UniProtKB/TrEMBL annotation, chains A, B, C, D:
SUPFAM superfamilies reported in the protein's UniProt record: N-terminal nucleophile aminohydrolases (Ntn hydrolases)
Domain of life: Bacteria
Organism: Devosia salina
Keywords carried by this UniProt record: Glutamine amidotransferase
Coiled coil: none
Protein name: Class II glutamine amidotransferase
Length: 261, 261, 261, 261
């Protein structure tokens, strides 16, 4: 289980959310040190939008807790839209190319979860990546392949539709290969303007997701952080959440064709 | 153009060939410092056979000239069969997964050259990798894909036939995609007993290859090193060279079907 | 708290002890994943003696659990004397130069513990390093400084005496600077023939140390590993343990001058 | 010989100077690939001033030419004051702690040159670092030690005086140790407002330095880059150059006490 955080709102220094708070994302990378549950020490990454149309991207293979460049960058950079991720590897070894977020043009994408039985279906999932994006495939994780496949399904003009179509195809591939392990997908997509968060799983047990209204904007995260009194809203399974213009909107996110009544 | 070296013979410390000689492989990684032609600073690797059936493998993303682990390993390890490589990236970024040698079971493989226009045919070349080996695909270089494809063509029981079949298929893919850039392939394969060296190119200009009889065994390398008086034999284009049991044998290596007279 | 292991006996593949057993050292690097107590993800290292008078040394900044080179090396290398360490940084950031073991000539050294208040006394501790060894100082950890200082106190001919003299001097430096935090020192030294293990602390609470008689030799480790039925002997605080020729001997290790009655 | 660049002026994207131009700093890291003189592949770094009082800092051990994070950062970050460096190691191995620029509070510092015979005088040079800054000493290069020593000589309120005093002391240490190799020092210091460039050597042969008036500000660099028609001013040996408020001013920089006539 990875951990991630996204923010949309007034420009703030990245460390305001990523480092300063109690149980911040960077501290979650080594939270197990303090005898909590998990370590997310298999690399880290942060992507942010500035004056360019394309986002900035920093990814590293060290655990976030010991990455001096990450700390300096988060202290220095201000942004009104950013994503950050600390990884606990499921598929794909620890290498920069497997670190989140992934980027393509103005898009950033990060994911928590996995395609069950991925090794058996990797080739079929990669076949979903359209030819003109295939050169972007650098690592061997399921997450990067899902992102590129979703781009091929029209991610830039219909994010929810493209993600749903991609997941539907992955499910079919799993089924065709006799895989019964679930497909779990909690993910965040950004295009420079809007954050799209998805929480869905084929077994209705997607990785956790929360959001919170801050003074300066809206944060979405794998788990609450900050002061104990802060109010975090859990995001229900089967949700597509959109954050733009200071407002968050949740709607149902269905992947499988609804059955006739 | 990468640089590489392979050795077969009595066990010797790896640094005897890789570090100690004048113009050794490690010094070739930064030879340009001394105002020669090229830098091979995009990672390095060494593979050797010991008491296990599988070879040992060390690969790193630092230039060989500054890799302290490589230096210590070469000073400490003795082997009668080993391969070493310093990389100058053509396709695929600088990451461990793109460093040579590549390994699978008892095989080691390293390559100098490239598939011209690789980005356009990468997907088709990767399609040559058989399903049961697809999980070994970790990077995005043409070299790794060619190795895995050759394994699928029967590399373990007919090395020259499998390499030729793989190259033939790659040529067809290039032609089908209208690529006129050459396919160049100077490579070394080891299986724990025998070294196979190949020097071939579709335009008859494969990267250079030399071999030399040492007191303790036989060395094959991209370029001569050691004392100026040392006698190195150039390996002709279109050659498959086999080194085993202290003897080197060269035979013609034809990739394209010979034409009837 | 770091974790380490040393072995002396018949040559064995390193992974026999470092990777294969239940709760092996490499798994201890991420044991917190399984909800135990600590993570030791701040780099790793292994040193071993082969045919050279100097040991081989591999150190890396990735957590041991994701270090593919470490895994391959431990699978391939056989040795009758080796040390391995997974780090949880106390003083000194995560960099190769701060990874254990440290080496000098035929010696290897690794340490678990710390000089309390080290930042305030670092300069004085480094002043203990003799001029001819000062060039070996590469990192900024207390452990490396203690090793180099002990070398200056005659580590090569009187290991216990040199370690005691070094610790005594460090204690004086702490006292002279008004530091009341303890000096804790559980460490292993090897010279190619003999293992010396020390467990001592100024507050009588040194990091844990255990040893065990295996079929092939003797293992010393920060904590027991392997089968639950395996019998590990705790090493008492204030002990200098010597392992050579298949035998382990424990004697009292006193740092402070005993007071007259 | 390292290569570096500094800029002061209107805010620009860093890649405008560091990557886009012909013979840019990043291309200088591997210029030898194109058969020029040198490789500067021993790590790289960039420091810039933004909205914080302290600068942002990114340093990496890969050659600049293959560092994807550096490229993204330079594409994304805009600054009116920044420094960048590509290293060719003289003293100190390739590690982040030895990469330039070095930082302390609001200061950034980078250096090209060396203290001749440094290994013999390292301890004495490090002794110049004041106690309260000693904890900042992370690597083992002469450059970092000179920066920290200059801070102790009052770098923040009298840059030229502090640098001269530091160099004078280093010269005395060299002489006291019988070292006849020169002390060469071409360096740039920034405090968030002003750039100070120094070009000096005990043998009057300091590494090269040039500056140029751009449309947006002033660039100082180890060697000219950009269009052949661009006019670069060489900076004479024995110069202290100050850049602030859009103006460059050069004055004599004397290290040794002038002799009475």
């Amino acid at each position: 289980m990875c951990r991630f955080l996204a923010y949309s709102g007034d420009p703030i220094f990245l460390d305001t959310l990523l480092i300063a708070p109690e149980a911040s994302l960077v501290s979650q990378s080594h939270s197990a040190r303090e005898a909590k549950t998990v370590v997310n020490g298999d690399g880290c990454g942060v992507g942010w939008y500035g004056a360019r149309s394309e986002p900035g991207l920093y990814r590293g293979i060290l655990p976030a807790w010991s990455d001096a460049n990450l700390a300096s960058l988060c202290h220095q950079v201000e942004a009104g839209l950013f994503l950050a991720h600390v990884r606990s590897a499921t598929s794909g070894e620890v290498t920069m190319a497997n670190c989140h977020p992934f980027s393509s043009g103005r898009h950033l994408f990060m994911h928590n979860g996995q395609i069950g039985g991925y090794e058996a279906v990797r080739r079929s999932v990669e076949a979903l990546v359209p030819d003109d994006l295939y050169g972007l495939r650098r690592g061997n994780s399921d997450s990067e392949a899902m992102f590129l496949a979703a781009l091929g399904h029209g991610l830039s003009h219909d994010p929810a539709g493209a993600i749903a179509a991609m997941l539907r195809t992955c499910l079919r591939i799993q089924h065709a290969n006799g895989i019964t392990q679930p497909l779990r997908f909690t993910a965040i997509l950004a295009d420079g303007q809007t954050l799209h968060a998805f929480r869905w799983a084929s077994d209705d047990r997607p990785p956790s997701l929360y959001w919170r209204q801050l003074d300066s904007g809206i944060a979405i995260a794998s788990e609450p952080f900050g002061d104990p009194g802060d109010h975090w809203h859990p995001v229900a399974a089967g949700t597509h959440m959109t954050v733009a213009g200071g407002a968050a909107r949740c709607e149902e996110f269905a992947v499988l064709e609804t059955q006739p009544a």
